[in-house]
């Protein structure tokens, strides 16, 4: 449509905007308001308490840990997913036999329903019955293996690995797609100039994919920060809060303990923290751009 | 055309009511026990009820346990509750406090339904602030100690010895050999109610309590701390990974012969009967000379205040808890004592023994805030199982419980 | 850019590719293996990669009438969502890329920001709205919810794609006398096909596995979708692994099949869309 078709622009945009306004902003505003009231299942009549809920949240012993866990979880999963996704995209971009099949197979984990993937991994990590310990033991690493999800020092790492496995294939496909667009001539010229593979990667491939990488970081950050199924099934946030993140805490407060006001408060705080994380990316990207120019 | 269609639908909607007398449809939600063919018996019972009560139809929805709590909650919050449902004993206080379920005192008195007909712990769990809000439906006890007879024989241990604290510990020690994949006792401490139920039963058996008469935390009493310290001494004899293990995980190890003792309610018996394991059981564990006291579990039937069919709902509840019906519609143990006796004789090994444990058991705190108390107790269990000082862990838990506001 | 590697590095790369294959497939292999284990056979220690007496009995149990109902529900809900989301997103993304109006840009930003809202925090208010609209326990409630949550990402994906199409094309058509609708349907739409496929596959995969809304908005068995239906195998105290894994295999097959068929277009669509972001 051209600039003159103003009315049409509005008509095309309205359904989407209306839907998101009614189904997401309206409930979200409701959640913000709810967080200012002390409501729970057992106190159904809302009582205005101002910011008391937030005071309680910030003062609670778990809060710091949940913020920390959420950030570690998000950053680790996002970083590993993207790195692993990028490397496997480079690999799948080579002309190798069986590659067409590989390109399809690689999406299997992403296609598997989240709850199923989580149950599968909980079982893989089982200290006695799981495949992982049985491999480690037969490979000679001790005679009992580790209790991956039951130990506060390994639980988060184990959850991250499972989430990376589930999510990296999407990054692979995105990067594989982006690699198709790297200018052939530029690469050829560099090759003739004698630039090695690493140099070409650094000076031609990465810069040309910069935008895709940033967008993909943001998208995976949002998805990971709000990713509930994996941790809920693996550990429910345990042991001893070692893997509790915002979505699991919100669910536990709201649906597990009927504390709606606090759950709403945690929901609002979680959006703020996610927005901060994303702002950080933009800042990093901006300073990167300045440094480059 | 549109008008015609409208008229047709209106007509279709009106006819049944016009011809038959007012037909009421009751929405009944129940926990779906996946381990048995219960739903079939339940359907038969529903048919029987509908035959006895023309004019009332029952629409049964069975809901898998992991989602039942959320479904009920969203339904009540959204003004969409069923007419009748089962609720876990530990949810009932909150539902009563929230004003979601009806007070059944008057109806129960009129119908002659009283405490005598039911297990005491079950009846208590149906009462809140001196009023009756539900009728006990089914019960069970955490925990029975199920044992692998072959492993006990091989080690030369008398199975009866595990009914004392000392005996259980000695047996567990002897039965454990991690290098061979053999473990003495199946402790579990994941975030789940089974963790709390077992913790409580050790506390009860040692003479302790979770809350005292005034509703204050009693976990710092010497009896409670003693039980926690005792549990801690069992940790080396349990399979690795207690903090994320559930009773379900321990069952798998018991079934493949790696675990000598597992803690489960009597509900475990049908599974074991189907397995190749040669098993037996003891009624929990207590210090020498004391009787083991288990933790009550089970479900009550409640009527929602929002239901427009209070009388029909009450009729249905009476029916389900009747002596001749109760046994056919539960897979735990009927809460009706007479029905329980018949049920246990027919379906469980060691009926008298189970009966004793049922009569000695104690309910978990009957508080509207129970779910929060339970969460704090899970943390306590995890602290204890990971080696924290039991006294300090209990003090921390009590500070949290007494700080609930 | 696609590269033909030298012979020496080729062997190394093949090895890497094999490694990647193992990483991806091993958990699946284990899933299939557990699904073939007879219920009466206990789990072995150490874990066995393949059951001693493989059987299809779990599949027979898993493929019960309920499963077929859940399957139909999932198909209806997912496909409707895909169609509606892609249509609405296409319209919105088109407007967004072809306008300089500030108000529209702000609106779009707000739509995209909505992606950040955690579902568990807004689900009870949405539930109440569904109840008020008398939509609970219907396909419509799920489709409405899924369209809303997938719309921002879909707009985002299509926006990048549409931005690449030269406006000159439309201007030329306009000079030839084509109206805006004609331009949209006859020129833009055909050019967008790869982007549409990519977005559709994305929306389909996300919707096919959604759990929380499906759990909250449906109550009766005949309205449940596949991911929620998996709970049938999870009891209060134990999991029936064999049947659960058999159902998992059954639930994954259709999406994998669709992806196999559309793989080429999916990658091509992302290519174009991803570049402009």
From TrEMBL, chain A:
It comes from the Bacteria. It is found in: Cell membrane. It is a multi-pass membrane protein. Residues 67-284 form the ABC transmembrane type-1 domain. The chain crosses the membrane at residues 7-26, 72-92, 104-124, 155-178, 212-234, 263-284. Keywords: Cell membrane, Membrane, Sugar transport, Transmembrane, Transmembrane helix, Transport. InterPro entries: MetI-like, MetI-like_sf. Belongs to the binding-protein-dependent transport system permease family. PANTHER family: BLR7065 PROTEIN, SPERMIDINE_PUTRESCINE TRANSPORT SYSTEM PERMEASE PROTEIN. This is Multiple sugar transport system permease protein. It comes from Kaistia defluvii.
Automatic annotation (TrEMBL), chain B:
It is found in: Periplasm. The keyword Signal applies. CDD domains: PBP2_TMBP_like. Its main location: periplasm. Gene3D superfamilies: Periplasmic binding protein-like II. It comes from the Bacteria. Keywords: Periplasm, Signal. Residues 1-20 form the signal peptide. Belongs to the bacterial solute-binding protein 1 family. This is ABC-type glycerol-3-phosphate transport system substrate-binding protein.
TrEMBL record, chain C:
The keyword Cell membrane applies. CDD domains: TM_PBP2. Residues 71-262 form the ABC transmembrane type-1 domain. It comes from the Bacteria. It is a multi-pass membrane protein. InterPro entries: BP-dep_ABC_trans_perm, MetI-like, MetI-like_sf. The chain crosses the membrane at residues 12-32, 70-94, 106-127, 139-162, 183-208, 244-262. It is found in: Cell membrane. Keywords: Cell membrane, Membrane, Transmembrane, Transmembrane helix, Transport. PROSITE patterns: ABC_TM1 (PS50928). PANTHER family: INNER MEMBRANE ABC TRANSPORTER PERMEASE PROTEIN YCJP (PTHR32243:SF18), MALTOSE TRANSPORT SYSTEM PERMEASE-RELATED (PTHR32243). Belongs to the binding-protein-dependent transport system permease family. This is ABC-type glycerol-3-phosphate transport system permease component. It comes from Kaistia defluvii.
């Amino acid at each position: 449509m051209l600039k003159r078709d103003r009315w049409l622009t509005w008509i095309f945009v309205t359904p989407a905007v209306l839907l998101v306004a009614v189904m997401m902003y309206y409930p979200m505003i409701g959640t913000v308001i709810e967080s200012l009231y002390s409501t729970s299942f057992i106190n159904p009549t809302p009582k205005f308490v101002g910011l008391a809920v937030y005071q309680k949240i910030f003062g609670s012993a778990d809060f710091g840990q949940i913020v920390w866990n959420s950030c570690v979880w998000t950053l680790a999963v996002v970083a590993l997913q993207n790195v692993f996704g990028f490397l496997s995209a480079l690999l799948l971009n080579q002309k190798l036999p069986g590659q067409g099949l590989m390109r399809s197979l690689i999406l299997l984990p992403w296609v598997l329903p989240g709850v199923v993937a989580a149950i599968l991994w909980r079982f893989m990590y089982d200290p006695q019955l799981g495949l992982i310990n049985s491999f480690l033991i037969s490979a000679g690493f001790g005679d009992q293996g580790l209790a991956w999800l039951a130990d506060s020092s390994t639980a988060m790492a184990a959850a991250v690995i499972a989430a990376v496995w589930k999510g990296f294939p999407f990054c692979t496909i995105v990067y594989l797609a982006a690699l198709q667009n790297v200018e052939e001539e530029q690469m050829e010229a560099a090759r003739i100039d004698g630039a090695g593979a690493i140099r070409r990667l650094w000076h031609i491939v990465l810069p040309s994919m910069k935008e895709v990488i940033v967008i993909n970081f943001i998208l995976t950050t949002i998805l990971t920060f709000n990713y509930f199924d994996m941790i809920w099934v693996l550990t429910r946030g345990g042991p001893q809060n070692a893997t509790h993140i915002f979505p699991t805490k919100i669910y536990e407060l709201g649906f597990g303990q009927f504390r709606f006001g606090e759950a709403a408060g945690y929901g609002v705080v979680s959006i703020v923290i996610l927005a901060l994380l994303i702002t950080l990316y933009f800042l990093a990207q901006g300073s990167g751009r300045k440094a480059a120019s | 055309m549109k008008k015609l269609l409208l008229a047709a639908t209106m007509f279709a909607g009106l006819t049944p009511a016009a011809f038959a007398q007012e037909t009421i449809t009751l929405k009944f939600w129940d926990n779906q026990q996946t381990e048995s063919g219960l739903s079939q018996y339940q359907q038969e019972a529903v048919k029987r009820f509908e035959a006895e009560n023309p004019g009332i139809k029952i629409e049964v929805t069975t809901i898998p346990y992991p989602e039942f709590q959320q479904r009920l909650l969203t339904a009540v919050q959204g003004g969409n509750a069923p007419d009748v449902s089962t609720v876990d004993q530990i949810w009932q206080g909150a539902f009563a406090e929230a004003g979601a379920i009806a007070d059944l005192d008057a109806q129960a008195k009129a119908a002659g339904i009283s405490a005598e007909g039911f297990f005491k712990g079950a009846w208590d769990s149906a009462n809140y602030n001196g009023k009756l809000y539900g009728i006990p439906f089914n019960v069970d006890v955490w925990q029975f100690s199920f044992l692998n007879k072959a492993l006990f024989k091989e080690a030369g241990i008398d199975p009866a010895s595990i009914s004392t604290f000392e005996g259980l510990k000695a047996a567990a020690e002897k039965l454990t050999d991690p290098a061979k994949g053999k473990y003495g006792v199946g402790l579990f401490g994941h975030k789940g109610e089974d963790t709390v139920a077992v913790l409580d039963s050790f506390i009860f058996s040692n003479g302790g309590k979770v809350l005292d008469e005034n509703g204050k935390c009693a976990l710092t009493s010497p009896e409670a701390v003693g039980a926690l310290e005792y549990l801690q001494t069992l940790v080396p004899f349990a399979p690795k990974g207690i903090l994320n293990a559930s009773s379900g995980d321990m069952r798998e190890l018991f079934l493949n012969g790696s675990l000598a003792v597992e803690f489960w309610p009597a509900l475990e018996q049908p599974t074991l009967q189907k397995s190749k394991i040669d098993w037996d059981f003891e009624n929990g564990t207590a210090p020498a000379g004391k009787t083991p006291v288990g933790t009550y579990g089970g479900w009550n039937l409640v009527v929602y205040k929002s239901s427009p069919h209070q009388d029909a709902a009450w009729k249905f509840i009476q029916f389900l808890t009747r002596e001749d019906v109760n046994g056919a519609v539960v897979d735990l143990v009927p809460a009706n004592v007479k029905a329980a006796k018949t049920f246990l004789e027919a379906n469980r090994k060691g009926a008298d023994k189970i009966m004793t444990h049922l009569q000695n058991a104690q309910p978990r705190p009957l508080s509207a805030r129970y779910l929060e108390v339970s969460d704090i107790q899970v943390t306590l269990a995890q602290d204890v199982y990971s080696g924290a000082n039991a006294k300090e862990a209990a003090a921390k838990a009590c500070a949290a419980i007494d700080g609930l506001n | 850019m696609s590269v033909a590697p030298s012979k020496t590095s080729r062997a190394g790369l093949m090895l890497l590719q094999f490694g990647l294959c193992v990483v991806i497939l091993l958990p699946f292999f284990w899933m299939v293996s557990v699904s073939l284990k007879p219920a009466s056979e206990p789990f072995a220690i150490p874990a066995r990669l393949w059951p001693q007496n493989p059987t299809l009995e779990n599949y027979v149990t898993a493929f019960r009438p309920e499963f077929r109902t859940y399957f139909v529900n999932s198909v209806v809900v997912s496909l409707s969502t895909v169609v509606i989301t892609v249509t609405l997103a296409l319209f919105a993304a088109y407007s967004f890329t072809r306008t300089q109006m500030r108000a529209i840009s702000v609106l779009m930003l707000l739509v995209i920001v909505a992606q950040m809202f955690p579902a568990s925090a807004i689900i009870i208010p949405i539930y109440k709205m569904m109840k008020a609209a008398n939509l609970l326990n219907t396909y419509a409630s799920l489709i409405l919810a899924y369209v809303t949550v997938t719309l921002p990402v879909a707009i985002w994906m299509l926006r990048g794609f549409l931005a690449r199409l030269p406006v000159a094309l439309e201007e030329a058509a306009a000079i030839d006398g084509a109206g805006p609708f004609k331009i949209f349907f006859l020129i833009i739409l055909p050019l967008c096909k790869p982007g549409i496929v990519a977005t559709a596959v994305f929306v389909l995969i996300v919707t096919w596995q959604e759990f929380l809304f499906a759990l909250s908005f449906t109550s009766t068995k005949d309205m449940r979708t596949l991911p929620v239906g998996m709970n049938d195998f999870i009891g209060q105290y134990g999991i029936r692994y064999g049947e659960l894994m058999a159902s998992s295999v059954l639930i994954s097959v259709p999406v994998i099949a669709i992806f196999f068929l559309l793989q080429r277009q999916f990658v091509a669509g992302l290519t174009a869309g991803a570049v402009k972001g």
